[in-house]
């Protein structure tokens, strides 16, 4: 059984302009020890999907439909107290900006130890020891001294390592990383991604990596699900996705990635804008921007079709016939 199964997830936010389907019929699975990337432009629904899994959608937003099964347990049927017990202990999340996640008036060690005490019930001294060990596990030098420092005394890369240490301090089975390398320079980004990948292998973690960086996906992920306007438009193993991208949006994203040695004077771009979720076009939401769109692309509801059953490569495009 997969570690995480998301089926037809629908998360909506009521607004003055109408109901916004921020996540609209999203389905995917994550196996133990597997890294799945959720890829797409800002506003495609990636972070809302992650928050939905954790039960952190703030009212009046709500999960309108779908199932979220973690380790065989239906998270949507759990009480707030039961979800709170799972968050942090079995499912952990790393957010984009560690400075907004860390409390500036408490030391790093105190914050990690508090999370440990909350989820494990360890006494204060043992929780502090665990906090120091967690900092050591993410390659923070001199962890005993660093544990006594405050967030502002650390660099951005070190703060992100602290967030990873805190997330993994209670030894979860599933890690959700929401743009974990945002605002970090390239060399630090590589170190953070290498760290997450090493910890995934050592601890057999399932990882949901949310990113817009396809270079990151190529280096660290097993599968990738491409999102557009709240829906998954393509889902495939990373090697297959890069070798045989099927959806025009996926191909547009790959074409826009800078490549060393490419002689083009300009990067490829995807023309147009992401549609407003309150006013989605009929048929395929990408059709107004798609250079391959036909009349049938603008009609009805476009379903996912299977292109390759052994690899479960699926695409939401009427121009790609099913291979089932």
Topology:
Layout: E1 4-15, E2 18-30, E3 35-39, H1 46-54, E4 62-70, E5 73-74, H2 80-86, E6 91-94, H3 98-101, H4 108-120, H5 124-137, H6 143-146, H7 156-168, E7 174-178, H8 186-203, E8 206-211, H9 214-220, E9 223-228, E10 231-237, H10 238-243, H11 248-255, E11 305-308, E12 313-315
Parallel strand pairs: 3-8, 3-9, 6-7, 7-8
Antiparallel strand pairs: 1-2, 1-4, 4-5, 9-10, 10-12, 11-12
Short description:
With 324 residues, the protein is of the alpha/beta class. It is 32% helix and 23% strand. A hairpin with a 4-residue loop joins strand 11 and strand 12 (313-315).
Could you characterize what this model shows?
This protein is of the alpha/beta class. The protein contains eleven helices and twelve strands. The protein has helices at residues 46-54, 80-86, 98-101, 108-120, 124-137, 143-146, 156-168, 186-203, 214-220, 238-243, 248-255; strands at 4-15, 18-30, 35-39, 62-70, 73-74, 91-94, 174-178, 206-211, 223-228, 231-237, 305-308, 313-315. An eight-stranded mixed β-sheet has the order 6-7-8-3-9-10-12-11, sandwiched between helices. The radius of gyration is 21 Å and the shape is globular. The mean pLDDT is 91.
Total helical elements: 11
- What's the main sheet like? 8 strands, mixed
Give the overall average pLDDT: 91
* H/E element order: EEEHEEHEHHHHHEHEHEEHHEE
Measured between the Cα atoms of the first and last residue, the distance is: 23 Å
Strand order of the largest sheet: 6-7-8-3-9-10-12-11
Structural class: alpha/beta
Helix content: 25-40%
Rg over CA atoms: 21 Å
Annotation, overall tally of beta strands: 12
